[in-house]
Amino acid sequence: MPELPEVETVRRGLEPVLAGARLSRVEARRPDLRFPLPDGFVQRLTGARILRLDRRAKYLLAPTDRDETLVMHLGMSGRFEIEGASARAARPGGFAMAQPPDPKHAHVVFETEAGARVTYFDPRRFGYMALLDSATLTDHPWFSALGPEPLGCDFDTDYLAEAFAGRRQPVKSALLDQRNIAGLGNIYVCEALHRAGISPERAAGDIPRRKLGVLTRAIRAVLGEAIEAGGSTLRDYAAADGSLGYFQHSFAVYGREGEACRKRGCGGQVERIVQSGRSTFACALCQT
Question: 161-166 contacts: CB < 8 A, separation 24 or more?
Fold first, then answer.
């Protein structure tokens, strides 16, 4: 599933084309994705102006001048493709081009007055879209319980110390809990814990404050580097212009079971364990 850096990469790719644009035509080629599309989806969006393009956790948010926000989630394999005169401006970076998506999986099309055409493809249809009242968006169940953004001002050592206080839950599970931190996923949690030298099995409440400071900085650094690189590009993920990111080539532990730890002077080996049904990759020697 696309994680925060992948979704942010898509947001940055779509922003030059959609932010401030008026939708001249909207086409829904099926009545549902993972969930049914909202009643009047096409009519409510046709003619609307998208004020800006935001992201909250792994959701893309497009508030409109009709006091509604188009909420989009990529699910497992959702992706956007841009065509038209403005498409070149949407490129989030210089990546190796992906193969063109199958037209039969093109489910929703947005056309702007400026001549851009944005198509949402989703072979597995695990993604979804909704139109929510902008004024009460934060009260919606999808958003009301979310923790702070890991790249935002509210996420710091003080917050993490308070969130983890007294918790016997493994730190990896605590980091993946969206009520604690919004948008963190399996890949980048593994990478951040390795960079911080913290075992994923360690109880969250047992980590000293100094180490939590190191972890906070590691989370910010790993996510920031991945965004600049265009995301991890695992399996079906591609950026908004159809290109592939390349952060996966920088993984220190994820997917590297049996390889030597890349941390200088360590000498350990990357191991794979399973936590809550998910693969965890870590070095038992330098992560304690």
Answer: 161/209, 161/212, 164/204, 164/205, 164/207, 164/212, 165/205, 166/205
- Annotation says 2 is catalytic: yes
CB 92 within 8 A of CB 230: yes
Give the type of residue at 49: R
DSSP collapsed to 3 states, 53-101: CEEECCEEEEEECCCEEEEEECCCCCEEEEECCCHHHHCCCCCCECCCC
State the sign of the Cα–Cα–Cα–Cα dihedral 238, 125, 151, 172. negative
User: CB neighbours of 141 closer than 8 A, spacing ≥ 6?
Assistant: none
Cβ-contact 241, 97 below 8 angstroms: no
One-letter amino acid identity for 90? A
Angle, helix 209-229 to helix 157-164, in steps of 10 degrees:
120
How many CA atoms lie less than 13 Å away from 144 in the CB half-sphere? 4
**Cβ(173)–Cβ(276) under 8 Å?**
yes
Overall pTM surpassing 0.85 (yes/no): yes
Q: How many helices (H) and strands (E) does the chain have?
A: 7, 10
Considering the candidates 11, 12, 55, 58, report the single residue annotated as catalytic: 58
From 44, 211, 220, 278, active-site residue: 278
Digit-coded pLDDT (tens) for 29-63: 999 999 999 999 999 999 999 999 999 999 999 99
- Answer yes or no: 278 catalytic: yes
Annotation marks residue 3 as catalytic: yes
On the question of pLDDT at 111 being above 80, the answer is yes
Asked whether residue 258 carries a pLDDT value surpassing 70, the answer given is yes
Active-site residue, selected from the candidate residues 3, 68, 81, 149: 3
